[in-house]
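ARCHIVE CARD
SHELF: 3
SLOT: left
DATA:
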Amino acid sequence: MQPLILINDDEIDRVLNMPLLETFGIRTTNNKTLARQVFYSTFKYTNRLIGLANKYGYKLEVKAVHPKNAKYEPGERYRISLSYKVIGIDPKEVSPEFKAELKTEQLHFAQESLYQQVRLENELFVERLAMKLNRFKRLNDLMSLNNIAEMSAECFSRNSKKAKPRMICRKYLRQYLSNPNRVASAKKQFESSPLFVEFRANFIAEIQRLSVLLDISFIEFKYQTVKYIEDQIKQQEVI
């Protein structure tokens, strides 16, 4: 099998249906670049597996895999991916070394894919919050990093019974929401004040609404990516 040829960023944007970010109103400074990573990582992963198969003299069958349940549920992870199956030989004859290397690649890719969505969510949270706090200077000074981290956990809580709320780490928040006047620990009186309570509730509701749109966009990016790669592999078979 021949490695796939990488297309330019304009073509990637077309494949991914990138205008969704503007249509849904969730465009941030970096999430267009982060969205392209969905394509890049899947593309490079496929080429690594093609190289691995060629190394052992195997031929791969590559197919897009979609969830059986097409109903969207906010907060659920949709496993849209590609399956890679060795064909042309008895499965029992596939070498253990190949299987071990394949498993390593699969685990690495699964972690990378999850990290991409997390980065998109983090970007959405910190940019929206920075925009809000720039308007409310006093509130920005009185909110501690703990306040902000706890807000993030409520914003990105998952519906799945097995999943736990995901809190953005304080190191990341400190990097992107730096404020030399920020209090180290918020006072109880501030945390119970109508100003903070109302701001917190409204912001969490806004991010939860936008994160649903971000989820849908991420699903679309994954779907269009795997469909494109599957089509490219099929074209090889025709040739």
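SLOT: right
DATA:
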Amino acid sequence: MSQRIECSRRTCRWTGRESELSEVLDPKYAAKSLTVYNHVCPKCGCDSYYQLPEPKTNKRVKNANELIKVISEHGRKFFEHKGVIATLELDKRGRVWLVDEYTKARVYTHYSGKWSGFHHGGTLRDLVCAMRDYITNGTLIPLDWIAPTRCNPENGDIWGYGKEAAAAVRAAAAQLPIIKQGEQA
């Protein structure tokens, strides 16, 4: 398994493996008829990066990632982009990070301002915050937070899933230990 890396440009923060870096010809050696390649970030072209330790895993992180997987398999397939599914990870300090599926950036979930690299809206951000609280404190998530309905259910759900897909994602999520069950809700 190759080393996990993160682009050193603060505006990019692409996260991946060394094997995923792009190769570009080094212009310093082009005049000398040498073929030398630099490995650069596939998103921004930066040639410097940080090495990341492997994330810590525990039962709560696995449960939260299962919920993300369930959401990515139904309806509009939030948290999924071209076969890549977003993941939550725990660092050695106990902080929760989201690896965004679209930008592939690690997003620090404990920040209260704008999350750079997170491309979803406020409803899904609140859901990620609830998953973060579950990982750190064990706070269960109410089932009503999954494909939430409007005040008048005839107007559809906020995620735009449609009645059948919203019911399917709620039924699948209700089976997970991260969701409040029955009298807990």
